Amino acid sequence: LSSKVTLNNGQKMPVEGLGVWKATLHEASFAVETAIKDGYLLIDTAKQYGNEAGVGDGIRKGLAATGKKREDLFITTKVFNGDQGYQKTLDNFQGSLDRLGLDYLDLYLIHWPVDGLYKETWQALEKLYSEGKVKSIGVSNFDQEHMDDLLQDATVTPAVDQIEFNPLLQQEEMRDYAKKIDMKIEAWSPLGGGQALNDPKLKKIADQYGKSVAQVILRWDLQSNIITIPKSVHAQRIEQNADIYDFELSDDDMGAISLLNQNKRSLWYQDFDWHTPHKQNAYHDEVDQ
Ligand code: A2P
């Protein structure tokens, strides 16, 4: 869990962390506190998840319980679609910091490449970066076309592109592209939102190592140089997902997993309208105690 990669700006980022998409405020607080106690250093949220305040609560509790410091952690959040544009992004960044109860972020991402706005949004991220309010900046759900377009005017190359990635969706082209520009790929829904957990071939491999399918998938991420952020709100799973440093997948098994690719996106993705910036921005300001 303490393993880190060096990003293209020299900052170090943990290779595995906790995701909290779909977690309520309370669940997020519990999951983050539990994860920090288990040794997780990377926590990934987004304004759109509506749980930044819960994450902040969990961070404070986790730090208090472990004696760790804010600087030991690596906290990511994201600017959502309806909040994009130069000034709106600057304002929203401050809102996220306030909800999280932090005075800087480790990584701020453009959540989706909203047409006509993401370049302006990137300029705001570059400003926040130059002011030291965020240590690294990146994108999420950008394909090669978006990246080429962004890089035409960018002065900072995104450190990370966080994309949907799991054994059924291996994103080979984007990984090659990222390598060329020295950008890291981070996997959202690395367990395929739970879907990949039922794969019989993965189950067979997992049984050989005496590990769960989730552990095999997450280990495969690490050995593939993909930063990974499995989501769970259950203590046992949070602990299990971090217990992947005592085994190594053989080349044969790595090869067998690479054959599972089906370029299969999650079902909701096909219907999700991320091109237009009018979508929901609901969030909650406080954790009900
Ligand atoms: P839960 O939060 O109830 O534990 P992904 O990160 O790919 O989106 O997958 C998250 C889904 O997988 C969630 O539904 C989560 O459920 C579940 N999950 C997370 N870790 C495990 C695990 N180790 N075993 C089984 N299910 C898991």
Q: What labels describe this entry?
A:
8-stranded parallel sheet; TIM Barrel; oxidoreductase; 10 strands; two-stranded antiparallel ribbon; disordered C terminus; alpha/beta; 289 residues
Give the SSE layout:
Layout lengths: L3 E3 L5 E3 L2 E3 L5 H13 L4 E3 L7 H15 L7 E6 L6 H15 L4 E6 L7 H13 L3 E7 L3 H10 L6 E5 L7 H9 L3 E5 L11 H10 L3 H11 L3 E2 L6 H8 L8 H8 L8 H5 L18
Parallel strand pairs: 3-4, 4-5, 5-6, 6-7, 7-8, 8-9, 9-10
Antiparallel strand pairs: 1-2
Overview of the structural elements:
This protein is α/β, with parallel strands linked by helices. The protein has one domain: TIM Barrel (Alpha-Beta Barrel), CATH 3.20.20.100. The protein contains eleven helices and ten strands. It has an eight-stranded parallel beta sheet. A two-stranded antiparallel ribbon has the order 1-2. It is globular. It starts with a strand and ends in an 18-residue tail after the last helix. Mean pLDDT is 94; it is low at 280-289. The protein binds adenosine-2'-5'-diphosphate.
**Share of helix, binned:** 40-55%
CATH class descriptor: Alpha Beta
Distance between the termini: 30 Å
CATH topology: the name is TIM Barrel
At a glance:
The chain is α/β, with parallel strands linked by helices. It is 40% helix and 15% strand. The strands form two sheets. It has an eight-stranded parallel β-sheet. The chain has a two-stranded antiparallel sheet with strand order 1-2.
